[in-house]
Amino acid sequence: MTALSVNLNKIALLRNSRGRDFPNVVEFAKKFMALGASGITIHPRPDERHITRQDAYDLGRLLEDNKKVEFNIEGYPSNDFLELIKDIRPTQCTLVPDEPNQLTSDHGWDLQDADKLAFVKKSCDYINSLGVRSAIFIDPDISQIELAPKTNTNRIELYTEMFASQYAQDDSSQEFDKLFESYNQSAILAQKLGIEVNAGHDLNLQNLAKFLTIDGILEVSIGHELTVESIELGMVEVMRRYLEICK
Length: 247
Hints:
Elements: E1 3-7, H1 9-16, H2 25-34, E2 39-42, H3 53-64, E3 70-75, H4 79-88, E4 92-95, H5 114-129, E5 133-138, H6 142-145, E6 155-159, H7 161-170, H8 174-192, E7 196-200, H9 208-211, E8 217-222, H10 224-233, H11 235-246
Parallel strand pairs: 1-2, 1-8, 2-3, 3-4, 4-5, 5-6, 6-7, 7-8
């Protein structure tokens, strides 16, 4: 079974838009956990446009008492971010190569750049030393996957926006088949190299079942799409459907 980690960023964004603590991020974490979420994901950004540092600490305290639910914190490994990881010690820390003002994650790490590879390795080594599982955001590119072991990461998270976009356009095209095979081969190679595999970005109820025909996907992190689907269908029904797919 693939673990479903619910990203709470959009819940926090809704709250911030009104200037008061509603909807409450911790209470929504509890709701998703009660409905069967295997994990909670957040991506705090420097400008706190959605998840704040206080949210991270509050959720950390909540999940200390819920060991069956993993806590995944995503972010660019700045000094401030790594200090947050040191304080909270989540289950997993996923490193993304985002610029401070970037709207959303839109690419993986370029490990062919020697300086970036060294930077990611240093960050992963530090995260691993804290007893936190390290993961890095990466494109479905064999040349990048081959370099992943040099970072000492425990896992990769395959960036799935390209898959989701092509699936929505035409999942029966040769272009889609070629792209999907790049994800499949990336997952196969990573596992051969001793690295576990997560996935995330724009996965939803329509495309997730196809993606999970790839063997060995341990966790999917879903937030934006799941939030919109919950508005349309209700949280209970949406979570039921996702958990059925993940089985």
